[in-house]
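Q: Could you fold this chain for me?
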Amino acid sequence: MTASGAPGVRRRRLSAALRRLREKSGLTSAEVAERMGWTSGARLTRIERNEWKFPKREEIEALLEIYGVVGEEREHLLSLAETARGRSDWHEYADLFPGSLPDLEAEAVRIRTYEVVLIPGLLQTPAYAAAVSEGSQVVPPDQIERKVESRMARRAVLDAPKGPYLTAVIDEPALRKAVGSHQVMAEQLRFLSGMAAHYKVTVLVLPDEAGAHPAVDGAFTLFDFPRPEPGIVSIPTVVEALYVEDEDYFDQHALIFDTVQNLALDPQGSIDLIEAIAAEHDKRA
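A: Sure. Below is the predicted structure, expressed as structure tokens.
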């Protein structure tokens, strides 16, 4: 499994960029449609909502000319359009990821995640991932092995040449919760400690002593993409995650993440606590 083919996310990014450019230009959808020779603004609306399959280069070129986009930004967006065709490397797991999570991870330049009760998916062991799926009672029993397989394959994104950097802030209770068993947790925490040595991974623990904080109500993940594309916020729910592309919403969550990151232990202090809690799980195994 490679970590490079994410045309769906590139179409999403292109759509967001075109919407942003139109709004910046001060033109309405109807005005742009008239200049494009279209009968109405409905076609542009579908493009801006990412309700399209194959971007046409000539249309993108015409839209960029209307918006006055030149130079590197123009070439970047045209390149995005060229690579926004085809299907994802993850099409065989499409039913498991309705929000295109693997594609988001592959396209992001940085992932920042805050977890309250679970270890982040990219940092899970197979046994831990299986226990999470079993405990959710949402994943059918005959799909658990496939779910775990897909989750392990996703980790390849961290080793990809252009893969994202990952910063994970994990609340202390997630380390203490006996997911699967104490033996499973001890193995998971030692793996987590090992992953913290990966040059693209930063693992920080938010200790109980930090008390109340802005993210106390729940987990979230931020996906940063190459500028000027806006980021995406992922909010987990019981059934599946919600993906929000609003720029203000993203900025608010970025500030919240900065706060919890500053409240967390430093990298070495985090590893020390992870290993100490792993030893506690060993004693109870």
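A (continued): Residues 47 and 125 are 39 Å apart (CA to CA).
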